[in-house]
Amino acid sequence: MPVATRKMETVRRELKSAPPDGFVVLRQLSYDEMLERRDGGIKILMEQSPGRNVDAKTSMQIANRWSNQFTFPRCITDHNLTDDNNVPLNFAGNIELVFKSLDPKVGAEIEKYIDELNQEDESEDFTPAASSSSQDGIKQPENDSPQS
Hints:
By secondary structure, the chain is mainly α.
């Protein structure tokens, strides 16, 4: 029978953005953690008050920050990354502080590997939106448009 539980083994990823030998060891999120990650980002967006002059781009940045602050400590099980004083970065500690000093190229590369491991790819949409094109590129009619 097919096994449908998350993979418990970890994967090691070499970081091109942290030469000469930077690496992270990652574990997969459970489905429950993935749902919590998605829900948390949406909750952050919904909490933005309409009168606060927060545009969509700013709201998305806030949701992305929350999502990464949620996943980095859960997915990174080992690494050899340090700060300028040769002190290991503590992804399980004050993640906001780590993010403030983390090289953006290193952070983006780790984020990419976490997303790959958890198959968080925006192109993987199992249910196309009503107004989207079908897989063969032909625009599908919308069901709720008025007929004349």
